[in-house]
C-alpha cells in the first residue's frame, strides 16, 4: 500500500497548527494515510523539545501507508492498530515506554470513511464501483456488510437503515432485500444497489437513497 494513494486532508495546516502548542504526546486517532500526522510531526520538530506522535487506525492498509509516509521521523512516531475508542488501553503501554514522563497535549480525530476506502472497489464501500459487499473499516474484522444483508431479519435491517442511514423508506428497502436474497445471496455492491434502486419510490432520488443506505 502506497501512502500516495491517500488524499491530502482538508484544512490540515489550520487544524494541526491550532492543536500543537507545546511539546508532549499528540494522538492522531484516525491516522489514515498519515497526512495529519505528518503535519503534526513537522510542527513538533519546529517547536523543539521532547515530543511523541501516536497514530491509531484499525485499517492495516492505512497503517502500512502511514508507516511509509512517516518513516523519516523514526521513533518519534508510534503507530498502533485499533479503534480510537480504545485510546486509553492502547496508550497505556506507550506512556510506560517512549511516552514516559511526557504529558498528552492533544488528540485529533478526522471522523468518517476515507476517500481511499470509497475509491477502492475491493473494500466495498461505494455503490458507484462494483465490488464485494464488504464495508469493513478493519479488513480483518469478522462481520462484513454481506453477512448483515444476507443474515439479518427484515425488522433488524429496517432499524439499521432508519437509525444509521436516516432512510424514511427503510422498511420498504428491507423487505426488498429479504425478497431478493431468496433467489440468491447478495454478494456485491452492485447487486445491493440494484435492489435499493428497484425499491426506491419513483418520486425519490435513487442516488440520495443509495447514499443513505451505503
Overview of this protein structure:
The protein is of the alpha/beta class and 214 residues long. It folds into two domains: 3-115, Vaccinia Virus protein VP39 (Rossmann fold, 3-Layer(aba) Sandwich); 120-213, DNA polymerase, domain 1 (Orthogonal Bundle), CATH 1.10.150. It has helices spanning 12-19, 35-47, 60-69, 87-95, 115-119, 145-151, 154-165, 170-180, 189-199, 206-213, and strands spanning 25-28, 52-57, 77-81, 104-108. Belongs to the methyltransferase superfamily. RsmH family. Its EC number is 2.1.1.199. It is an enzyme of class 2 (transferase).
What's this, in brief?
This protein has about 210 residues and is an alpha/beta fold. It folds into two domains: about 5-115, Vaccinia Virus protein VP39 (Rossmann fold); about 120-214, Putative methyltransferase TM0872, insert domain (DNA polymerase, domain 1, Orthogonal Bundle). It has ten helices and four strands; from the N terminus they run H-E-H-E-H-E-H-E-H-H-H-H-H-H.
Main attributes?
alpha/beta, Rossmann fold, single chain, 2 domains, DNA polymerase, domain 1, 214 residues
Amino acid at each position: 500500500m502506497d501512502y500516495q494513494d491517500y488524499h491530502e486532508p482538508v484544512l490540515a495546516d489550520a487544524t494541526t497548527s491550532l492543536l500543537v502548542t507545546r511539546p508532549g504526546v499528540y494522538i492522531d486517532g484516525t491516522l489514515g494515510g498519515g497526512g495529519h500526522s505528518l503535519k503534526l510531526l513537522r510542527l513538533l520538530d519546529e517547536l523543539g523539545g521532547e515530543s511523541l506522535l501516536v497514530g491509531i487506525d484499525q485499517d492495516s492498509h492505512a497503517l502500512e501507508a502511514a508507516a511509509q509516509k512517516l518513516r523519516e521521523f523514526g521513533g518519534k512516531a508510534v503507530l498502533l492498530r485499533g479503534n480510537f475508542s480504545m485510546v486509553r488501553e492502547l496508550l497505556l503501554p506507550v506512556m510506560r515506554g517512549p511516552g514516559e514522563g511526557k504529558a498528552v497535549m492533544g488528540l485529533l480525530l478526522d471522523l468518517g470513511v476515507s476517500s481511499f476506502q470509497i475509491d477502492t472497489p475491493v473494500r466495498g464501500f461505494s455503490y458507484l464501483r462494483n465490488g464485494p459487499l464488504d464495508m469493513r473499516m478493519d479488513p480483518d474484522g469478522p462481520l462484513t456488510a454481506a453477512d448483515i444483508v444476507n443474515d439479518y431479519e427484515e425488522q433488524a435491517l429496517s432499524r439499521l437503515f432508519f437509525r444509521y442511514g436516516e432512510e424514511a423508506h427503510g422498511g420498504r428497502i428491507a423487505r426488498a432485500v429479504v425478497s431478493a436474497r431468496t433467489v440468491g445471496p447478495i454478494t456485491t455492491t452492485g447487486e445491493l444497489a440494484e435492489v435499493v434502486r428497484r425499491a426506491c419510490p419513483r418520486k425519490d432520488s435513487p442516488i440520495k437513497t443509495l447514499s443513505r443506505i451505503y
